[in-house]
Design a protein that fits this description.
Chain lengths: 359, 359
């Protein structure tokens, strides 16, 4: 697929979120998307750009925090100056993606697709085909989400309940509703029906449709975004008062209830690299010890799991199964794959202990 | 007990051995005895000196490697210049203790007691009473060892098989034989008899008796030691050719076979701090997480075992039982208490990999 196949299509990449479950690798000052978590030599942000470039070319917009603008620019050196929008402060996904929509509306973009900066996709061509189908439906005025084929009954993701096929769009289905993260037994029921898919937060839509959907829920919010797009000098004044709300709650759920959301089922080896357990799965095989970067620093004897030797020091691991060892210059994590979700509790405890410098 | 209670008694402390099972805390360049392993604020060597000072005063002699002389002197700053003997190279315990014996014989010492620099004793007064009884028997010409009350059927120590009480010395018994490290079932049989004690390598003897016992086995060895004592300038020339042999094999075992060894049963909270499992036992309780030094650096959640935060970095441990985490500026160890003995295999592997700098 080439950049000419999707004329007027712009890729939007909201690059935010600290990824606290990947501490101490990911920090608020150096979040997940800036790191090479797959050992590919490319960071997740770079991989995201690499993946979108074949279908978007230089029609590419990153929305990130002011604090990360320089890091983003240093990783994506070929982007033009106006390809990076910097948020003065974090205002959740509606403000970030809404700002991109307003800027693209002003630039005359026909369709935008928003994709997180810190996800992994192993089959980019299958992803491109899903995006193309979504763009096609979005041109008809739908808010289109890409629904990930669920490979196991995860309780870590929200689900998309899909309905009938959209007339004229053989690859697209109506969305009945979005459902919040379920329990594992409920997720098992979802999978048994064959009608539920993971919500990876991928939205494809006309910028104007997105802003109009927002205006129906919160006219002031949409108006403020359009004012900023028309006069970027208003950003510092208007931004702090924007609501902190996720795009799912702000527009996707109300629009689904109104029958205005569609979904493209996608199966392209997606992973959100949410914690060290999923990272270990992504990188290796059960019962082996996976090393992310600098394998020459690691010595082991009868151990399995994941080791990240991120400080250059020698790491020796003896006799632990499914262990997670993450070594950085100022902080060390030792846990198990089973407890990977609890890493965020240590991050919270560090903040409580006055060590926000480490988070 | 005071320094006047044991006139003519000298304490000898052989300070050698890298303690590879305590890697990466203990290194060949910075061995176990130079470290504070109990969180007391005093190193094991300093504690050994503290423990012996009440009965030996300044009648104190350390034998250590040339490479450690400065470190030893910096820890024991009040010692006179001639209280530290430096070995040009490691020649095992017979040469080290034999050199001390020859030097003390030349100085007119009546009795010497040799005690390792890296053991822990929780009840020093009980230890002093055992030494006093040993000194008393040593004045009568016996080679006297202190036999540690075995608290469990360890396979990590050699045992002393004790016999009848020594006439005139109510606290002292004859030694039937020394036995090598047994299997656990054999150790259980030993304990059931009540006649076996751990051999902690503590020998109390007249210097001349020790050298004469050595001369009976190896006249050249004893003669060389006496020549060095008479003329320290001969040390560089004679030392490299001295046999590498442990004092147990060189004189204790033959002397026991000849009925010339006695033992004082001792029970004073002894520990050789052989590995991180025994260190964890020494420092804490089961099912708790023990931190050696810098507890403010450690955050944990549902973990037990031992953490040594030795680099000043923050260490977070989540959900591991009986874990051992030892963090140093250039090397990190993660293992379990059950695998503590296998740490020496990693040290060997590092040497094989050309990383002797880390060992």
């Amino acid at each position: 697929m080439s950049v000419d196949d999707l004329p007027g299509f712009w890729a939007v990449v909201p690059a935010g979120g600290a990824g606290t479950r990947l501490w101490p690798l990911s920090r608020s000052g150096s979040p997940k998307f800036l790191h090479d978590l797959t050992g590919s030599g490319r960071t997740l942000l770079e991989q995201t750009h690499d993946r979108l470039a074949p279908i978007a070319g230089d029609r590419f917009l990153v929305v990130t925090g002011e604090a990360h603008r320089d890091a983003v620019r240093s990783q994506l050196v070929d982007l033009p100056e106006d390809a990076v929008l910097a948020e003065p402060s974090a205002r959740d996904s509606m403000a970030a993606i809404g700002l991109a929509a307003a800027v693209l509306e002003a630039r005359g973009a026909e369709v935008m697709g928003s994709f997180a900066a810190d996800h992994v996709i192993r089959e980019p061509e299958a992803f491109h085909r899903a995006v193309a189908a979504a763009v096609d439906a979005a041109r008809d005025g739908w808010l289109v989400t890409i629904g990930i084929d669920p490979t196991f009954p995860s309780s870590a993701f929200g689900y998309i309940h899909q309905g009938e096929q959209l007339p004229g769009h053989p690859l697209v289905r109506r969305v009945v509703e979005f459902v919040e993260k379920p329990s594992v037994p409920v997720a098992e029921e979802y999978l048994a029906t064959g009608r539920y898919r993971w919500n990876a937060g991928m939205f494809v839509v006309r910028p104007t449709v997105l802003l109009d959907l927002l205006a129906e829920q919160d006219a002031d919010f949409a108006a403020a975004l359009r004012r900023i797009a028309a006069d970027p000098g208003l950003l510092p004044e208007l931004w702090p008062d924007l609501p902190r709300i996720a795009i799912d709650h702000a527009i996707a759920e109300p629009a689904a209830a109104a029958g205005r959301v569609a979904t493209v089922p996608g199966s392209f080896g997606w992973d959100d690299v949410g914690d060290f357990d999923s990272l270990a799965t992504l990188l290796g095989q059960e019962e082996s010890l996976v090393v992310l970067g600098g394998a020459e620093h690691v010595h082991h004897d009868g151990a399995s799991g994941l080791v990240v030797p991120g400080s250059g020091r020698t790491v020796a691991v003896i006799g632990l199964d499914d262990v997670v060892v993450v070594d950085t210059p100022d902080a060390l994590l030792v846990t198990t794959r089973a407890r990977a979700q609890d890493v965020k509790r240590i991050v919270a405890a560090l903040k409580d202990a006055g060590r926000a410098d480490l988070t």
